[in-house]
Write a structure and sequence with these properties.
The complex is a heterodimer. By secondary structure, chain A is mainly alpha-helical. Chain A has helices spanning 28-32, 35-44, 60-71, 77-85, 89-102, 105-119, 124-131, 139-147; strands at 13-18, 23-27, 50-52. Chain A has eight helices and three strands; from the N terminus they run ββααβαααααα. The radius of gyration of chain A is 23 Å and the shape is elongated. Chain B is mainly β. Chain B has two domains: 2-81, no CATH class; 92-401, Neuraminidase. Chain B is built from eight helices and 24 strands. The chains are: A mainly alpha, B mainly beta. The interface between A and B is large, with 48 and 54 residues.
């Protein structure tokens, strides 16, 4: 766990403890990419296990996997495609929220784009369920909103 | 892109009662959780705060926003309409404009080409039908998703084709009936206020002397046009002029005698004048101007066969023009599969991804003119036919266009 203070930061690892009590190790340079973690390190020191109350053992390994690739500069389009390939929509959402909590910008932006891409082909009802939102339109309000999208030509004469 | 993280998202994944407390629905009998697996029921109940929602929605394609996301619930409809959201989307989209193909013979046949890929001079497009309403005229210019349409001086409109909204523009102060307004009329947007303005240059004759009169109008604000400057000119029968705008704070008026006039669109004044060297202006029937990246370029046709063109660039700092590139002579046979022997003219339309997009008009079948579009890549020196743009007998004009959610103020 704790390394000698004189060793270079690149070989130093940080211990992270998830909300459900599991401990994972990451490189200090990867921890730097997660601003929340870095803030906690700055406050608590780097040889203490950093507690992450809102991240759990299901998603943290995936996040660590991403940043392991990032610090070696190996993140490619292929890697990113593979990374999300087997994740379902809810798993991506959990990762997205975790990336937000950890203030891990690169992963956050990548996952934002991935969620946006996934939504593109989904129905309105699916999107509501996905975001946990209820439909508060009355049928009249909804049809009025739809009408707005049609061209209205009042006021244009044929030829003046 | 700024975003704040909220520690309030500290709902435990395992606690599904959070849904009830955060739901903004007051209709509990529709509170109908998925009866499928436990974990997916619970996870799908996590709500996102607005800033995270905006992060995601601003990356969703406009069509999906307008056809689905808007109907999810009232607060989403409001968010999508908000100017903060519109600007966030535009900020993303600015790096990905597409091509608006205007069919001037049949306006509802206009469409938008979303560029999916552009490798080795080949474009892969997704075509979206985005016609302009009939009776509104021709496109004079466009900016941030808004098209400027002109039919005559009392029928001028600004239109957002993806939102189907439009606004009539107050009558143009033209001094006499003129047809060829396209190169003297355009729409701009002031960068730091996001305000749209129209600039129009009238050619006024006063007792045998000719003047260019510069007018401006702020869209949705002004009811009449305001004159900001006038410049005297000696009109020749073969004069050349063109307006150039690249989305920044300056508009450029280029003209035979006067050279380049730089207008500050925010302060609405002329700030600089630059001459154009004789090597270019002596050939005023063979030149066209274009923004190439951050640079104003002059494309000069050499010879009569429409195959050789030179590019000259303007250096703003010194105000001097210099030769930049001579295009490899166009090999139409390679580019489109057949020789083009009856070329009527070649028009340089726009610049994208190191490529100049050109329209070539040829005489076909003896009488009819046909338009074809090509791209010339200045890095690879390759000429390629653009196959996504219809070849046709219609008069086609191509514009660089970014779809946006900008809603025009109601008149």
């Amino acid at each position: 766990m704790a390394q000698e203070a004189s060793s270079s930061t690149s070989s130093k690892t940080i211990s992270l403890k998830t909300g459900d009590g599991e401990i994972f190790e990451i490189e200090a340079s990867a921890a730097k990419q997660m601003k929340t973690v870095q803030r906690l390190i700055d406050d608590l020191g780097d040889d203490i296990t950093i507690p992450l109350h809102n991240v759990f053992s299901k998603e943290l390994p995936k996040i660590i996997e991403y940043y392991k690739k990032d610090i070696t500069g190996e993140i490619t389009k292929d890697f990113e495609a593979e990374f999300v390939k087997d994740l379902n929509d809810d798993e991506v959402k959990v990762l997205f929220l975790a990336a937000n909590y950890l203030d891990a910008n690169k992963l956050f932006e990548f996952l934002s784009q991935n969620i946006a891409d996934r939504l593109e082909s989904k129905s309105v009802e699916y999107v509501r369920k996905y975001f946990g939102v209820e439909n508060d339109f009355t049928p009249e309000e909804e049809s009025k909103l739809r009408e707005e999208r049609a061209w209205s030509f009042r006021g244009i004469k044929e030829d003046e | 892109m700024e975003r704040r993280f909220r520690s309030q998202i500290s709902k435990s994944i395992n606690n599904c009662s959070d849904y009830a407390s955060d739901s903004n629905s007051h209709d509990k009998k529709n509170h109908n959780l998925n009866n499928s697996s436990q974990s997916s029921k619970v996870i799908s109940n996590l709500l996102l705060p607005e800033d995270l929602l905006i992060s995601i929605l601003s990356l969703v394609p406009l069509n999906c926003l307008l056809n689905s996301a808007r109907y999810v619930c009232k607060s989403w409809a409001t968010t999508i309409r908000s100017s903060h959201f519109v600007e966030t989307c535009l900020h993303h989209a600015r790096s990905k404009p597409g091509l608006y193909v205007e069919n001037r013979t049949n306006e509802s046949g206009s469409y938008f080409l979303d560029i999916k890929d552009n490798v080795n001079g080949y474009f892969v497009f997704e075509r979206i039908d985005l016609g302009i309403p009939p009776r509104m005229g021709r496109i004079m210019g466009n900016c941030d998703g808004i098209l400027l349409l002109y039919k005559n001086h009392v029928q001028t409109f600004v239109v957002n084709p993806i939102l189907n909204c439009w606004l009539r523009v107050p009558p143009l102060p033209i001094s006499k009936d003129q047809i060829d307004l396209q190169k003297r009329f355009t729409i701009v947007r002031v960068p730091h206020t996001a305000e749209f303005k129209l600039f129009f240059i009238d050619i006024l004759e006063v007792s045998g002397d000719f003047w260019y009169v510069f007018y401006v109008l702020r869209i949705g604000i002004d009811n009449s046009w305001k004159e900001i400057a006038r410049k005297e000119t000696t009109l020749q029968w073969n004069y050349f002029y063109q307006l150039l705008y690249n989305g920044g704070n300056y508009l450029y008026w280029i003209e035979t005698i006067q050279g380049v006039t730089m207008v500050d669109i925010d302060k609405e004044i002329i700030v600089r004048e630059l001459p154009i060297p004789p090597v270019l202006m002596d050939h005023h029937r063979r030149i066209m101007f274009l923004w190439m990246g951050n640079c104003i370029s002059c494309i000069l046709r050499k010879g009569v066969k429409y195959r050789t063109f030179q590019i000259y660039n303007l250096d703003f700092a010194s105000g001097k023009w210099s030769f930049y590139h001579e295009m490899t002579p166009f090999d139409y046979l390679v580019a489109c599969g057949h020789e083009l022997n009856n070329i009527l003219h070649v028009v340089v339309r726009l610049w994208i991804n190191n490529q100049i997009i050109l329209r070539v008009v040829v005489k076909w079948d003896g009488k009819i003119a046909k338009s074809m579009h090509f791209s010339y890549n200045v890095k690879t020196r390759q000429l390629t036919e653009i196959e996504g743009i219809d070849v046709g007998h219609n008069h086609i004009e191509v514009w660089l266009h970014t779809n946006s959610l900008v809603l025009l103020p109601h008149s």
